[in-house]
Design brief:
The chain has about 260 residues and is of the alpha+beta class. The chain has helices at about 45-50, 85-105, 110-125, 130-150, 185-190, 200-210, 225-240, 255-260; strands at about 5-15, 20-30, 30-40, 55-65, 70-80, 170-175, 180. It has 2 domains: about 5-80, Nucleic acid-binding proteins (OB fold (Dihydrolipoamide Acetyltransferase, E2P), Beta Barrel), CATH 2.40.50.140; about 85-150 and about 200-260, Up-down Bundle (de novo design (two linked rop proteins)). Strand 1 and strand 2 (about 20-30) form a beta hairpin. The N and C termini lie far apart (about 55 Å). Bound molecules: zinc ion (ZN). Zinc ion binds near residues 159, 182 and 184. Zinc ion binds near residues 161 and 164.
Length: about 260
């Protein structure tokens, strides 16, 4: 008889598989991301799935099948979305989970990443009504923290080349190389830093804030349209050059509630 394994996990995504089966992608604290097959043949799926909604944290039982890990039991612990979840919160949660699904490689154990996602979901599900601008900024903040947890932390404080702290107005941004370079290095090694471009102090400040400050504080910064736009430009350029898979929508576009409602 196959050994039964158990783990705590958060459902990141699900997809139909074969005729009646379904595959769940689940983030776990001790086994990284797992793909679990829920068999639909003999009705166990109907018993399991009510506990397997998106963004639910659950205790999962599974066995090693021939090709797949097969789900054998589920007990839900916590649901981060409910009947009172606003559209803005729903978009935040859905988009962030699909970013986690794209960013995390299978079976890479990372309890800190798991804690980050739990912390984020608890926050994102309690933000109430949000402006599209704020929603996009929050998702941006989550993305920066997620990328850091996955080993792609941008350098926003010291020059990538000489490691000295960058002074206001005295640096450029190089998405591919992963952060800021001081003006002196950018000029001295022009061939290497050819693609570095100027960004505003306000943009760098927002990026730093979004990366370092806790989620609860991310409701604070004033977001004028121009600053938001520049923040997202820098963020997208970083995402495109470092993320393992490029998401199909922009971070800013992902949180537009008015478009969804129309
Ligand atoms: Zn330098």
């Amino acid at each position: 008889m196959a050994t039964l394994h158990s783990t705590l996990g958060i459902v990141l995504s699900r997809r139909d598989f074969r005729e009646a089966d379904r595959i769940y992608s689940v983030l776990t604290p001790t086994r990284g991301k797992l793909e679990l097959l829920a068999r639909g043949g003999h009705k166990p799926l109907a018993k399991l799935t009510p506990h397997l909604e998106l963004a639910a944290e659950a205790d999962l039982l599974f066995v090693h099948g021939r090709t797949f890990l097969t789900l054998a039991g589920v007990e839900r612990r916590r649901q981060f979305m409910g009947t009172r979840t606003t559209l803005g919160e729903l978009l935040l949660i859905q988009n962030s989970l699909s970013l986690v699904d794209l960013a995390v490689r299978p079976e890479e154990r990372d309890p800190l990443l798991y804690a980050l996602v739990v912390n984020w979901l608890a926050f994102a599900g309690s933000t109430g009504a949000l402006s599209d601008e704020r929603g996009a900024f929050l998702l941006g903040s989550f993305l920066l923290k997620l990328m850091s947890a996955c080993g792609y932390r941008p350098e926003l404080c010291v020059c990538l080349a000489c490691r000295s702290p960058v002074a206001p107005g005295g640096y450029r941004w190089h998405a591919l190389k992963g952060g800021v370079v001081c003006e002196a290095c950018a000029v001295a090694q022009e061939d290497q830093w050819f693609h570095a471009r100027r960004i505003e102090d306000a943009t760098l400040k927002l990026l730093r804030f979004a990366l370092v400050e806790p989620f609860g504080s991310q409701l604070r910064p004033t977001l004028c349209e121009q600053d938001s736009e520049r923040f997202h430009e820098a963020l997208e350029s970083y995402l495109i050059t470092h993320f393992p898979v490029i998401p199909s929508v922009s971070i800013r576009g992902a949180c537009v509630t008015t478009l969804v409602a129309a």
